[in-house]
Amino acid sequence: MTREEYLKEIEKVNEAGTYKEDWGSLSEHETPKWFRDAKFGIFIHYGVYSVPAYGNEWYSRNMYNKNNREFKHHIETYGPQSEFGYKDFIPMFKAENFDAHRWIDTFKKAGAKYVVPVMEHHDGFAMYDTEFNKWNAANMGPKKNIVGMLKEECDKQGLTFCGSSHRAEHYFFMNLGREFDSDVNDDNYRDFYGPAVLCPEWQDELFTNSTENPDSKGPDKDWLEDWTVRTAEIIDRYKPAMLYFDWWIQNKAFKPYLKKICAYYYNRAKEWGREVTICYKHHAFPPDVATFDVERGALSEISPRYWQTDTAIGNRSWCYIQDNEYKSGYKLVCDLIDAVSKNGNFLLNLGPKSDGTFTAEDEKALSEMGAWLSVNGEGIYGSHYWSQYKEGDTVIASGSFNDGGEVDYTASDFRFTYKAGYVYAYWMRPAVQDVKIKAFKTEPIRELLIDSVSLLSTGEELTFERDDEGMTIKASDSFKSDMPLCFKVKLL
Q: Which superfamily does CATH assign the domain made up of 390-491 to?
């Protein structure tokens, strides 16, 4: 199908479908139950950028940035960009040890319920088989349909397949290669490097503010139509249960096309009989149309609308790099609990090595999360927020890019979830001592009646007393733990 034919097909589907290309119609779409119940997903940044494994997943841009350390590293390691450009990493990207079955099995054992591979990053190399981009993993490099194989294994092993497209930003992403003699200027590779539009708004110190500002310069019509068709192909070929987009789609130029592709996606899903959602950043969509996502961060309170945070096991990069720093399993579990207690999901990224294997640090973090969720997941999966999300003074900083440091929880810090007549009180920093939870104090008239308290991980019934200052749970040797513990509080 040509681009023009696909655009006509999109119009045809939307004209006949329930959802129309306006926010009023699209706001009738509900957040899927599967998504609200799943709580924990795996994000994957895997691509050509995994080969240089230096700096971060923006190597494809930064290697052409004269002011960036990647520029100097590239010349010293591979030679000048006119002789060895980003495209020349593709034959080195072989994924020789990629094993889709093992990947999905590992994620399943970690307790994840959905999987979100980056199907195409800003570098323009698609990790899936596509009619609209010859620069894809099925056609060159690994010569494997990486995304297709992951979807097949998700279906076999019972995890929900989702997908992420960062294609929008490719419009300008490689543009710094225009400033000097590099292969970005070679018209033989224009279909890979893209228009690589060079203008002051997308250079130097103006870059970040300009691309974040929805009123700033946007892409042209040709690019927007191309982006729409490529996204529609992802929807039709791979039927993801969630579509995740990165930041630039909040630009005002995208708005008509966002409505178009959103209606198409929701209408197609209705044809399939499946529930889907879109995850977005900033204000790309109205809050009742899709699911808001906070990158590497958190919200300060319970959100009335369902949301998601995405973070990475590695602090320095979303993709594999040789000198990454990694979060502990304890921190990741605490961040998961915090997100769920505020009516959100936790999407955790890892960056496989170029050969398709995981780092020891990624394996360890996933194993620790899986072990914890195997005995504490009852209060996570399918749960809801309670009347308050926390007790104690320790909070996670609100907003994006606040996920790097360890949070200094104390023995007085708790997070709460609720499900089916039980309140789950997560003790964030356990100690072998009596536990006092003020939220369960006795109150005249409005008193919360409690039948029993048990330790979720062991099933052990616990002795407790209540007064007007709180509920005291008597100490048990089982309280000794390096990970959060959960008290399962049965209501009368």
A: Golgi alpha-mannosidase II (2.60.40.1180)
The one-letter amino acid at 116: V
Order of all β-strands in the sheet with 464-467 = 435-437, 470-473, 464-467
What is the dihedral sign for C-alpha 102, 105, 415, 241?
Answer: positive
Distances (CA, A) of 40 to 35, 228, 296, 336, 479: 9, 29, 15, 8, 25
Common-topology check for domains 3-377 and 390-491: no
Verdict on whether the full-model pTM lies above 0.85: yes
Q: Are 465 and 457 in contact (CB under 8 A)?
A: no
Residue 344 three-state SS: strand
Q: What span, in angstroms and rounded, lies between the C-alpha atoms of 365 and 384?
A: 25
On whether the 3-377 domain is CATH 2.40.10.120, my answer is no
Strand ranges of the sheet holding 414-419, from the earlier edge strand across to the other edge: 390-391, 414-419, 422-427, 485-491, 450-455
Nearest to 363 by CA among 417, 326, 338: 326
**Where along the chain do its domains lie?**
3-377, 390-491
Provide the sign of the torsion angle of the four alpha carbons 104, 109, 114, 118, taken in this order. negative
Sign of the dihedral defined by the CA atoms of residues 326, 331, 333, 336, in that order: negative
Residues for the chain: how many in total?
492
Average pLDDT along the chain, 492 residues, taken 10 residues at a time: 96 98 98 98 98 98 97 98 98 98 98 98 98 98 98 98 98 98 97 97 95 97 98 98 98 98 98 98 96 95 97 97 96 97 98 98 98 98 98 88 85 98 98 97 90 98 97 97 98 96
Question: Residues 418, 424: contact at Cβ < 8 Å?
Answer: yes
Task: Give the residue among 65, 106, 69, 43 at the shortest CA–CA distance from 323.
Answer: 69
Separation of alpha carbons 41 and 391, rounded Å: 26
